[in-house]
Amino acid sequence: VVRRIEELGFRPHLLSEGGRTVIGFMGDETKSMQSTFAAMSGVESVVMSRKPYRVACREFKAEGTIIRVGDIEIGANRVILMAGPCAVESRSMLMEVAHAVKEAGAKILRGGAYKPRTSPYSFKGLREKGLEILAEAREKTGLAIITEAMSIQDVKLVSQYADILQIGARNMQNFALLEEAGNIKKPVLLKRGMMATLEELLMAAEYILSNGNQQVMLCERGIRTFERYTRNTLDIVSVPLLKDLTHLPVIVDPSHGTGVRGLVKPASRAAVAAGADGLLIEVHPNPDEALSDGPQSLCPEDFRNLVDEVKKIARAVGREI
Ligand SMILES: [Mn+2]
Fold first, then answer.
1. Residue 77 CA to ligand 1 centre (angstroms)
2. Secondary structure E strands in 108-264
3. For the segment 297-309, what is each residue's pLDDT rounded down to a tens digit?
């Protein structure tokens, strides 16, 4: 089947699952081509997708994708908590947060070493030093690490340290960066752009998937609307919608999604109730002194309370944390 697809000039994408192999390709959607493949031995069925995101769509893969990071499974029954500071500010603060969030139940430590900032005069991260500190925190706590790569040049280095590579909202349509993320062997968390539709988000994911990296998770982090009481408008409905449209895990970032500390907990409850596979939350030992995103960061105690609350919601919807 693969040879036939290649003979026709298309590029096949293979996916093996539960004894079945799904082969996807972007071809031309004519009836004759459908019957050509349907008649081949070993072919169970030919499904034509009308979705422009061929590999990301549910039609390509009915079962939800589970991304494995060590013994952590993202996209399975357990809702995964990723927490940590907006930026890695120093070794001591990162170690403090790492131990605190681990104790509270987080499995993955977040922290930016490369920070995309609206102002060029803001703190832009400790860069490679920050990556080293993150790696040390992983060693000390056993937490997996998620951190952002801002440019193609950073991808290689960041993916050497990180367990999950993050692509930020401002880079969602940086197609060269997406292609580079498609070349690595690490999972990628792709954030929704602040002005992006869900279809644009899925097409961005398609760039990574079609380049050969199947380990992609999507992150709803709020979009820009006319509302000003919150930093962004957290699109909770995107969670069940995405779960319907795609097999990829969906993570919610209620910190950037609201920008308001007091709203992070209720937004987290809503996200878990809506079916999110994970939460990405900013936690800082002293939010008032944070070098970035202090107003939306929780202190470790707030985070512990949040975990207690979302555990109840998870149980109510048949999941665990
Ligand atoms: Mn932040």
1. 27
2. 108-110, 144-148, 164-167, 188-191, 216-220, 250-252
3. 999 999 999 999 9
Residue 210 CA to ligand 1 center (angstroms) comes to: 29
DSSP string, 119-153: STTS----THHHHHHHHHHHHHH--EEEEE--SHH
Q: 221 CA to middle of ligand 1, Å?
A: 10
* Closest of 294, 281, 254 to residue 122, by C-alpha: 294
Cut 0.85: pTM above it: yes
Å from CA of 182 to ligand 1 middle? 24
What is the Å distance from ligand 1's center to 283 Cα? 10
276, two tokens: 């999110």
pLDDT tens sequence across 231-258: 999 999 999 999 999 999 999 999 999 9
CA of 85 to the centre of ligand 1 (A): 8
User: How many residues does the structure list for the chain?
Assistant: 321
